[in-house]
Design goal:
The complex is a heterodimer of chains A (about 450) and B (about 475). Chain A is an alpha+beta fold. Chain A is about 25% helix and about 40% strand. With about 475 residues, chain B is an alpha+beta fold. In chain B, the strands form four sheets. In chain B, strands 9, 10, 17, 18, 19, 20, 21, 22, 23 and 26 form a ten-stranded mixed beta sheet that branches. In chain B, strands 1, 2, 3, 4, 5, 6, 7 and 8 form an eight-stranded mixed beta sheet that branches. A six-stranded mixed beta sheet of chain B has the order 13-12-11-16-25-24, covered by helices on one side. Chain B is globular. The chains are: A alpha+beta (about 450), B alpha+beta (about 475).
Chain lengths: ~450, ~475
């Protein structure tokens, strides 16, 4: 059966079985990943999958079934099981009917051009990134390149019929001058036209070279310039914490703070799945609502959580079209740009630290935002407005809300970031933050 | 069919793996059920070596035509990759297995309805809330999730492995937030997990466990005292020893990290190819990695390359003893694979992973460890932790922690911080307990990310003269 027919067939079964609401999603994906290290390809991965997800509701009772075998027989059994499981499930405390369609979607976002993904071309992109880093002085290069074509077909009992074809390509590159001197850079794009792997390799190589002969940093409180990879990680934490589901569960430092000033005037963050041509753009959410731009933080004030229909009802508001059927999530985070250059930020620091990447962020308390994270790759000590030396072995041990409140300047130039450590595509500038606490291991 | 066709098309090595994972997941959020989810993920993975280049492919579309197309793409990718492979990849020698592994359950998951599962979580949740309220503390943000999983795998390789396994797993993850208006909040996360049937859940006695956790959390919130930074003797509980074993011995001992294969994602290691025999800890430190422990969360008897599993000593008497290898890294090091190749799903490449990592028990009772301390702290569990990507600088922040005075436990302490280097940590250990406990965890590694089930554990251990940080 074609994906559209699968959706129609399953939806009909769910209705016949007595579901008050149901959603059927079919996802088809083709993906190739090339991983490399020590300037060589270590493995080339290819994936082709098609799967369905059936979500059935019987008033406050909900069940979902993932289906890998898309035969008619399995789909029939799974649809019946989903409805029966929902009927037997104990009730949740909120029931919100699915959004009522049909909806109009951004036509340009529904059918993006397919990537060709020829092996030679993908390998060629990897070679160009490796060569660019080596030309900048790196000794060895590692990373991964992923090219993906996917199609999502969605039907709901809210009369939603939606289908979107999207493509994406991403590269993450780490360059080493030695085991203690390294640089990292990433790029993501929705089309080959916007994809520049050699620039990524070159930037990682330049950071690696600049970080040669690092000295141990000294713990203390410093002004810090956080590069786009670092600030994207923090912004991504804000995006995750803005999910109303996480707020409700205590996994957020934004709980109870709507319309409160929680950050510096200079900090703004939005989720915007409507940004044409960007990696994380997508025309509809998991309930079929047309996606939109939602301001999460404006001029330092928390404006909105991210909602699906259920969390919106619980919080007495409207969905922001960020469904996840269970957990609302950001699609495409955008940090508002500033008016400075990176040189302006570094030049304004008397004594501070420039951090280009970070890794392994963990919380002591999600509700207060107490956390630590480890600067990784190139890190520099700044003295009298100049980068003085390469440093390492420090950790940022601070509080998320304090850092947001201490944002003092941002660059005009921004970079899209998504990699192992930053799960949601995030457009981030470099950011100057006052008074960040850096700690260090003893012994 | 896949292996034969790959061999006919010049593959030096090929491997096919069918894997099916059948899940049932329930989540109770603040006492209310969320969506009950059933999921079957199943498909076939193929790996092939051509001219020293390695290709991996997977699909859940299991028609002959699609599998042939997949194989042909894997072979082409491997060939194309070999263009920029200077050192051809090869699969080293290993004890290749043929056989069947089946973990028998006493109570099958099918015998326990979703309603009964949710009733149990509700009982546990209520017990926690009542326990905290008895001390005047609310638990406003919390969840308990319960997942059952049955994994069936068939692994075949071109050099003769053929292993069929069926392994059930069950896991509970809990998160509690204790709140009191004058004191603020403290939070606790923990996980239980075993490779067995429902009998493990019965053994865990979740209502009692959550009740106890909630009571202790409420006590931490209301009565734990902040501490100043100072050098102290420290006793670490099994939960902390487990995470240390995993992060500060297991990860640095993964041979693919040593070779730089994970450099851009999970990172590298402070160890090098020459580090076998290197002194990193005191003589009493022995860290073990063992997939073969019955009921363990990381249990397997053959890895995903069909190699027979065995117990490995990562650190023996304070010295690096052995790395974790798959067949690819073993070939580079000129050793035999020690069966560390694991994949979390059909659509993920098998890579070097831990299974169950722990400090081997010694001969001290907990009371004996405490008796030897004039002024110190006991850190029973933790919340925040991280370690750099060379696995050299780590931070563990205690949650349930006590002052030790003259060998006796005194009041609760708030968030003692251990921020220390790996050799500094292992070298400070002077005594090891005789008890042992394990925690379940999902270990993240690889690209795409593979969160794989592991146990971390150990006995209580004692460290001397460690710099402890505090938050006042």
């Amino acid at each position: 059966m074609k994906a559209e027919d699968i959706c129609e067939f399953v939806l009909k079964i769910c209705k016949n079985e007595g579901a008050s609401d149901s959603v059927v999603t079919v996802a088809e994906i083709e993906e190739t990943m090339i991983r490399f290290s020590n300037n060589e390809i270590t493995v080339a991965n290819t994936l082709k999958d098609a799967s369905a997800y059936i979500f059935a509701v019987d008033r406050e009772r909900k069940a979902g079934i993932g289906v890998a075998d898309l035969s008619k027989k399995t789909l029939l059994t799974s649809a019946r099981r989903a409805v029966a499981s929902a009927r037997r499930a104990p009730p949740g405390n909120v029931y919100a009917p699915l959004p009522k369609g049909p909806f109009q979607y951004d036509q340009t976002a529904l059918d993006q051009p397919k990537l060709e993904m020829g092996q030679r071309e993908l390998v060629g992109w990897v070679e160009s990134a490796i060569d660019a880093g080596l030309r900048e002085g790196a000794q060895r290069m590692a990373g991964s390149l992923v090219a993906r074509n996917s199609r999502v077909i969605l039907r709901t009992t809210g009369d939603v019929i939606a289908s979107a074809r999207s493509s994406s390509i991403e590269i993450s590159v780490r360059a080493f001058l030695s085991s203690l001197a390294s640089g990292h850079s990433t790029a993501i794009a929705a089309s080959e036209r916007d994809f520049k792997p050699e620039e990524v390799g070159a930037e990682a190589g330049r950071f690696a070279k600049a970080s040669a002969n690092p000295m141990d940093g000294e713990p203390g409180k410093y002004e810090a310039v956080l590069g786009p990879l670092v600030f994207a990680d923090l912004a991504c934490q804000v995006g995750r914490s803005a999910s109303a589901f996480n707020v409700d569960m205590g996994l957020s430092f934004l709980g109870g703070k709507i319309d409160q000033k929680i950050a510096s005037d200079k900090f703004g963050l939005a989720d915007d799945a409507t940004l044409r041509g960007s990696y994380g753009a997508f025309p509809f959410d998991a309930e079929g609502m047309p996606t939109r731009r939602t301001a999460i933080i404006e001029n330092g004030t928390l404006r909105s959580y991210l909602h699906n229909s259920s969390t919106a009802k619980k919080f007495g508001t409207e969905s922001t079209a960020n469904a996840g059927l269970m957990i609302p999530h950001p699609f495409n985070l955008v940090v508002e740009a500033g008016d400075k250059t990176l040189e302006d930020l570094i030049g304004s620091v008397d004594k501070g630290v420039y951090v280009t990447n970070d890794w392994y962020l963990r919380y002591q308390n999600y509700a207060t935002g107490d956390f630590s994270v480890i600067p990784r790759d190139a890190m520099f000590f700044i003295k009298n407005g100049q980068v003085e030396k390469s440093i390492r072995e420090l950790r940022i041990s601070d509080n998320m809300l304090r850092i947001l409140s201490n944002v003092s300047a941002l660059t005009r130039e921004r970079k899209w970031v998504k990699w192992w450590e930053v799960e949601v595509p995030t457009l981030s500038p470099s950011v100057l933050v006052d008074n960040i606490n850096f700690t260090k291991s003893s012994m | 069919m896949i292996i034969d066709t790959a061999s006919k098309n010049c593959a030096e090595y090929s491997e096919a793996r069918y894997q099916s994972d059948t899940y049932e997941s329930i989540l109770l959020k603040n006492g209310t059920p969320e969506i009950t989810t059933f999921d079957v993920r199943r498909g076939i993975a193929i790996r092939a070596l051509v001219d020293g280049g390695l290709g991996f492919g997977a699909t859940n579309i299991l028609t002959k035509r699609d599998l042939k197309t997949l194989l042909s793409r894997v072979l082409r990718l491997a060939k194309a990759s070999s263009r920029i492979v200077k050192t051809p990849i090869s699969m080293g020698q290993a004890e290749i297995g043929r056989g069947t592994v089946e973990v028998k359950t006493r109570i099958a998951f099918d015998a326990v309805s979703t309603e009964s599962r949710l009733d149990l979580l509700k009982e546990a949740d209520s017990a926690g809330v009542e326990s905290a309220e008895a001390i005047g503390v609310k638990l406003p943000g919390r969840y308990i999730s319960l997942d059952t999983l049955v994994t069936e795998k068939l692994v075949m390789t071109s050099d003769g492995a053929r292993v069929h396994s069926t392994i059930p797993k069950v896991t509970v993850d809990a998160f509690l937030t204790a709140f009191e208006p004058q004191k603020g909040t403290v939070q606790r996360m923990f996980s239980l997990g075993e490779s067995s049937g429902w009998e493990s859940v019965e053994k865990w006695n979740l209502p009692e466990r959550i009740k106890k956790e909630a009571r202790i959390l409420a006590n931490i919130l209301t009565s734990a005292n902040p501490m100043k930074g100072e050098r102290l003797d420290v006793v670490l509980g099994p939960e902390v020893v487990g995470i240390i074993s995993h992060e500060s011995s297991g990860h640095p001992g993964e041979a693919d990290r040593v070779l730089g294969r994970e450099a851009a994602q999970a990172g590298e290691t402070y160890l090098s190819r020459d580090s076998i025999g290197m002194k990193v800890g005191s003589d009493v430190v022995n860290v073990v990695e063992d997939p073969t422990i019955p009921r363990s969360f990381g249990y397997y008897l053959y890895d995903d390359e069909g190699v027979k599993a065995r117990r490995r000593y990562l650190i023996k008497q304070g010295r690096i003893n052995e790395f974790l290898h798959n067949r690819e890294t073993a070939h580079v090091f000129g050793v035999s694979s020690n069966a560390s190749s694991r994949s979390v799903a059909y659509n993920r490449e098998p890579i070097v992973r831990m299974a169950n990592t722990f400090v081997e028990p010694g001969d001290h009772k907990l009371e004996e460890l405490l008796e030897g301390i004039e002024n110190g702290i006991y850190v029973k569990n933790f919340m925040e932790w991280n370690i750099d990507d060379r696995r050299f600088n780590q931070k563990y922040v205690g949650l349930e922690a006590y002052r030790i005075e003259k060998g006796r436990l005194k009041g609760l302490l708030r968030n003692p911080i251990i921020e220390i280097t790996t050799p500094g940590l292992w070298s400070a250990v002077d005594a090891v307990g005789r008890d042992i406990e394990f925690s379940a965890a999902s270990c993240g590694k690889g690209d795409p990310m593979q969160g794989i089930p592991v146990w971390t554990g150990g006995p209580h251990i004692r460290l001397r003269n460690v710099a402890i940080g505090g938050i006042s």
